[in-house]
Design goal:
This protein is an alpha+beta fold. It is built from 2 helices and 4 strands; from the N terminus they run αββββα.
Length: about 80
């Protein structure tokens, strides 16, 4: 497919996505006439892990660790919204 002016804009913005975000890797993609399909890989490599002491509370003899599931550095909806 030959890209028109808007297709070139979509291509350039797709490529810039991984250049401006350290933890985003782009996979295969295809630009369609009115949209784009692509694979976005979000890598954390431990950079999004909380290094604060564990926040442990005791409720009804159950221990809860609030840092058990660290937030990713960038969430997918943020990447799509900024694209």
């Amino acid at each position: 497919m030959v890209l028109n002016e808007y297709g070139h804009i979509a291509y350039n913005e797709w490529v810039k996505t991984s250049e401006i975000r350290d933890n985003v890797t782009l996979g295969t993609f295809v630009i369609m006439p009115n949209h784009i399909h692509g694979i976005i890989i979000l890598e954390t490599n431990g950079r999004g892990v909380s290094h604060t002491p564990k926040n442990i509370t005791k409720q009804d003899d159950a221990v809860t660790d609030y840092n058990q599931h660290p937030k990713p550095l960038v969430q997918l909806y943020v990447v799509i919204n900024q694209w």
